[in-house]
Amino acid sequence: MSEAAEFEGILETPWYGGVSPFAVNSKKLGMWLFIISDTLTFSALLISYAFVRIFTPDWPRPFEIWPAIAKSSLMTLVLLSSSLTMVLAVSAAHRGNVKKAVNLLLATMAFGLAFIVIHITEWISLIHEGVTPWKNPWNPAVPLFGGAFFGLTGLHMLHVTIGVVYLGVICWGFNKGKWTADHVEVSGLYWHFVDLVWMFIFPMLYLLSVNPH
Amino acid sequence: MHANAELDKHDVAGTTKLFATVWFWLLLLTALEVFLAYERVEVHLMVTILIGLSLIKSALIIAYFMHLRFEKLGMFLVIVPATVFCICMMMIMFFPDSIRLTHLPTY
């Protein structure tokens, strides 16, 4: 074997740079690393919330089935449905069906917007009841209720809002042929992560705060 | 060439039927969670069940929607164990304190 052929042989093994060891592109690996860091951010917040809450036996549990739980359940349905349209958009993009992928991306954005609108109405009704990040009308001795609620849901809503804008940019670029199916897939990873975080916020903030009476 | 063929295989993994089934199960588990809240299940039992269900739901989302099930095992091993370890480290003070607190007479 000549020296050049031997060198080529080494390059083809996974750990010498000839091929990707994980068989993913760098964009996807980068997004996964971002998701890990964001997972730790949300984990820290949720664990802090759990810690504060267990230290406070008289933590308010104000939410009624109607409207708070019904609205938040609807928000969960909307977000889960947006994940389904997103994953189908990624499939369509990889199969080269640009029109279908773009339509599904638009549907995902519409679900995202619906989530934001319902969430804002939920926030407004709570603010009208007198809840702020510093106080709540049910137990003034537990000012952290509002801080925990608006902090966690606010950070999540910020992620959803950024996600809608991100998907809009990707949708435009993919439709123009400026970007590839890989870009759609990477934006999908971000969107599913936002959905995943809600799967913890919804039970911990809403369902565990249902009025026991 | 080999790597590209592998990439293509991963990229189109999963069918509409599979994704719709996962979506249906996610909805079903969510409905179960809401039902528990509606029934006002005792809070300690409820938190245990809710976290368990949330973990199942997140595993479904990561495996199927985020395609991790279709990636190489090495990718999974790089991402998941380290993240789970970090989260466990964050919780290292949570369980001893929370269990002690709930056994205090004033709680």
Main traits of this protein?
A: 213 residues, mainly alpha, Four Helix Bundle (Hemerythrin (Met), subunit A), 6 helices, B: 107 residues, 2 domains, 5 helices, 78% helix, 0% strand, disordered N terminus
Folded structure, characterized:
The complex is a heterodimer of chains A (213) and B (107). Chain A is mostly helical and 213 residues long. Chain A has one domain: Up-down Bundle (Four Helix Bundle (Hemerythrin (Met), subunit A)), CATH 1.20.120.80. In chain A, 74% of the residues lie in helices and 0% in strands. Chain A is built from six helices and no strands. Chain A has helices at residues 3-11, 26-54, 65-94, 98-128, 144-176, 181-206. In chain A, helix 2 (26-54) runs parallel beside helix 6 and helix 3 (65-94) packs antiparallel against helix 4. Chain A is elongated, with a radius of gyration of 22 Å. The model of chain A has no long low-confidence stretch (mean pLDDT 91). With 107 residues, chain B is mainly alpha-helical. Helix content of chain B is 78%, strand content 0%. In chain B, helix 2 (16-38) packs antiparallel against helix 3. The radius of gyration of chain B is 19 Å and the shape is flat. The model of chain B is unreliable at 1-10 (pLDDT under 50). At the A-B interface, helix 2, helix 3 and helix 6 of A face helix 1, helix 2, helix 3, helix 4 and helix 5 of B.
